[in-house]
């Protein structure tokens, strides 16, 4: 929610910071697209351009009204919280004297009282935002030292914030601060960068520094200084950005969504790569949690939101089966408010593509306070969840730009399966050769996903023919249940269609009342090689068909049992039960994407959403 980028150069030749900021904004637009704005320091002034709406509006404005040459620029793409998506509420915001510009991601919870205090003292405001309050406070605190002003003002703020400020008197400096919102530093040659995540500066540098809670950062083209809340210098952890700048462009596809659906074989393969030794044993060296602790845990709780939670839901089936450890899956925002039973024998697994979902961050903190070890399954290096957890198992899906998650889902299932197999190996629940067999099966998944993708035309045709549909139901059993939930979520968020996923066994306990003539129902059918499970789902299809449902069935190749009861069949290649979510979800992703496009919607930036939900 809200993307932040800053660039500063030492003035030597090369691309100007404004270009780097515009490039960063394009890569961060997934974080919010209610408005975009940029401020640069030039000729002793702060110059601002900003526009409501998507980045395109700002780019048009910059063409009409280019920014002057500058050494420092900051840019913002907004997901509105305080105040509607208007030009006035767009960031950057200015201090009372117009000499300082500020951008912000997060929510200043005590902004009302601060605003009242400023108004009583004669301040006038140009926007309804909480951010402008901070711009005024900084302007007033400034006495020649922008870093000192930032340290002073952040002490008065409550809530979550990443702040970036420039001042007219410091043409080559950006000062930033963070609390409960993301910020990373990019280290260039004669230039340095700041961003909400590494995508902001991936086209400029691969060398990065983490920023911890309550730190204040001052960058120039040649220097980076980080201090804690008391102004004491600190050393931060450096890391190398693994993402490729090219991975975050559409590369010939109509949309990032299309591209990322097609990236999935690679995302699974990359997440598996390098995780076995020469004897085929699973090695997760990065886990960094003592093996004796991993042997002694008696419960796993997965905390996550949305699609990541559905990945956790899938993982529960596999981990319990392989490791005989109870696994609970909890929506991260419910976790800490219900006084969960967690202790040092609980392993909490936090799954997050962005690593910045505030609800998941708060769950991680709560679990650690209770003495649990937290293992993060995260896609974004340098992110808060990765930094604050005891260990990280990275998914290697590459940058996911489309707001609706696709390749991260497959990578999350893959990574949590690796975790399950590793625990099974470590705790002696599975022999090494059994683990090797499962790994080999996982290794065959990229080719199977490719096969499903090759059959996409059929899914697309059906999706286009259903563009006037107003409600779709999804049914699944066992690991097919979270797949049904994910199929429904994709359709809701991309095509704005009422869609609900149910456990197929739950049908007769209520949802079957929804079935009427022509009601489309997707059914995720397990492999016929699990006859009991398979027969139950076939019965469910018959039950809804008998009541007039139009059945769209996802079934394994060669499963002829479904044919008499299916109006449409989408096929996936023969796959063992626990691995099926990795292939059976793909037609559902394509269906949602295609139906949304048929309705004329922007599949990369669905309405009301932002990719990283960085506020609770
Ligand atoms: C759905 C989607 C969201 C995210 C959720 C968690 O397509 O993208 O439901 O899965 O907001 O985000 P992360 O994984 O970044 O924590």
Give me some keywords for this one:
24 strands, Rossmann fold, alpha/beta, binds fructose -6-phosphate, Glutamine Phosphoribosylpyrophosphate, subunit 1, domain 1, 35% helix, six-stranded antiparallel sheet, 616 residues, 18 helices
Description:
By secondary structure, the protein is of the alpha/beta class. The chain has three domains: 3-247, Glutamine Phosphoribosylpyrophosphate, subunit 1, domain 1, CATH 3.60.20.10; 251-443, Glucose-6-phosphate isomerase like protein, domain 1 (Rossmann fold, 3-Layer(aba) Sandwich); 456-598, Rossmann fold. Helices cover 35% and strands 22% of the residues. The strands form four sheets. Strands 3-2-4-1-10-9-11-14 form an eight-stranded antiparallel sheet, with helices on one face. A hairpin with a 4-residue loop joins strand 12 (215-219) and strand 13. Helix 13 packs antiparallel against helix 14 (432-454). The radius of gyration is 25 Å and the shape is globular. The structure holds fructose -6-phosphate (F6R). Fructose -6-phosphate binds next to helix 9 and helix 16.
């Amino acid at each position: 929610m809200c993307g932040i980028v800053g660039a500063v150069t030492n003035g030597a030749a090369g691309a100007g910071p404004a270009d780097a900021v515009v490039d960063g904004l394009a890569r961060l637009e997934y974080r919010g697209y209610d408005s975009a704005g940029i401020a640069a320091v030039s000729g002793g002034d702060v110059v601002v351009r900003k526009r409501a709406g998507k980045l395109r509006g700002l780019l048009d404005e910059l063409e009409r009204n280019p920014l002057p040459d500058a050494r420092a620029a900051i840019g913002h793409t907004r997901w509105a919280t305080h105040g509607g998506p208007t030009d006035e509420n767009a960031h950057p915001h200015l201090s009372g004297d117009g000499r300082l510009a500020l951008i912000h991601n997060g929510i200043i919870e005590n902004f009302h009282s601060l605003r009242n205090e400023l108004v009583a003292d004669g301040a006038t405001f140009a926007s309804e935002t909480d951010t402008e309050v901070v711009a005024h406070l900084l302007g007033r605190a400034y006495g020649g030292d922008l870093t000192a002003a930032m340290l002073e003002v952040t002490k008065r703020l409550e809530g979550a914030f990443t702040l970036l400020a420039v001042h007219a008197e410091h043409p080559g400096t950006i000062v930033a601060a963070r609390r409960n919102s993301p910020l990373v530093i990019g280290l260039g040659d004669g230039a340095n960068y700041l961003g909400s995540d590494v995508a902001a500066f991936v086209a400029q540098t691969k060398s990065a520094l983490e920023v911890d809670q309550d730190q204040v950062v001052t960058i120039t083209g040649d220097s980076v200084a980080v201090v804690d809340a008391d102004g004491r210098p600190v050393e931060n952890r450096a890391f190398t950005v693994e993402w490729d700048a090219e991975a975050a462009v559409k590369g010939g596809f109509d949309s990032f969504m299309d591209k990322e659906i097609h990236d999935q074989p690679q995302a699974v393969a990359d997440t598996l790569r390098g995780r076995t030794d020469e004897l085929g044993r699973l090695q997760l060296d990065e886990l960094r949690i003592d093996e004796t602790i991993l042997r002694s845990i008696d419960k796993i709780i997965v905390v996550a939101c949305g699609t990541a939670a559905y990945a956790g839901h899938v993982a529960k089936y596999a981990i319990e089966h392989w490791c005989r450890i109870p696994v609970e899956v909890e929506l991260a925002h419910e976790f800490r408010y219900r006084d969960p039973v967690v202790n040092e024998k609980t392993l909490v697994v936090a799954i997050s593509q962005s690593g910045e979902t505030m609800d998941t961050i708060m769950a991680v903190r709560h679990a650690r306070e209770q003495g649990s070890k937290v293992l993060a399954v995260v896609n974004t290096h340098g992110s808060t969840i990765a930094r604050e957890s005891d260990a990280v198992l990275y998914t290697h899906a590459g940058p996911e730009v489309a707001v609706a998650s696709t390749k991260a889902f497959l990578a999350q299932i893959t990574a949590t399966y690796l975790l399950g197999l590793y625990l099974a190996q470590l705790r002696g629940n599975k022999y090494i050769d059994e683990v090797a067999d499962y790994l080999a099966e996982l290794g065959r998944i990229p080719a199977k996903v490719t096969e499903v993708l090759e059959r996409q035309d059929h899914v697309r045709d059906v999706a286009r023919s259903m563009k006037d549909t107003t409600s779709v139901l999804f049914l699944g059993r066992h690991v097919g249940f979270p797949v049904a939930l994910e199929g429904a979520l994709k359709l809701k968020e991309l095509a704005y269609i009422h869609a609900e996923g149910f456990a197929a066994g739950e049908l007769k306990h209520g949802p079957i009342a929804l079935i009427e003539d022509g009601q489309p129902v997707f059914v995720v059918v397990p492999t016929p090689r699990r006859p009991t499970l398979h027969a139950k789902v076939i019965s469910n299809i018959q039950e809804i068909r008998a009541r007039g449902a139009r059945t769209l069935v996802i079934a394994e190749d060669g499963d002829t049992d479904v044919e008499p009861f299916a109006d449409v069949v989408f096929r996936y290649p023969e796959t063992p039960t626990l691995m099926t979510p990795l292939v059976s979800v793909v037609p559902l992703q394509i269906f949602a994407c295609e139906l949304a496009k048929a309705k004329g919607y922007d599949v990369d930036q669905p309405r009301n959403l932002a990719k990283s939900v960085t506020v609770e």
